[in-house]
């Protein structure tokens, strides 16, 4: 019935800051970017593998809980071949990264960090 995840959509408080974070720091590819005048909203479609991440801006977005244990989306996880260079890049840019943990069921390494609007993101070392 379902084939794959097509996209995940995020509403950000500072569109330019979030766009730089996802494109320049995390290295996602910009597919397209449009300004929707009728909604006073920017929208960027970014590619990571076969999935898209949509970034939206709105004039006054409502804040919601962002803790990884809050109801709703727990976090967004990115697969990486090696955690170490990605963590180094994030920390060099001033992003706080939690200590590396080991998945007790798979033995894989993973860690968490927050994006500019404090949404929890995970890096999962998928060998």
UniProtKB/TrEMBL annotation:
Which residues does the UniProt record annotate as the domain VOC? Answer: 4-126
Q: Which InterPro entries match?
A: Fosfomycin_Res_Enzymes, Glyas_Bleomycin-R_OHBP_Dase, Glyas_Fos-R_dOase_dom, VOC_core, YwkD-like_dom
Q: Which UniProt keywords apply?
A: Metal-binding
Q: Which domain of life is it from?
A: Bacteria
Which NCBIfam families does this chain map to? PRK11478.1 (NF008551)
Q: What is this protein called?
A: VOC family protein
Q: Which organism is it from?
A: Mesorhizobium salmacidum
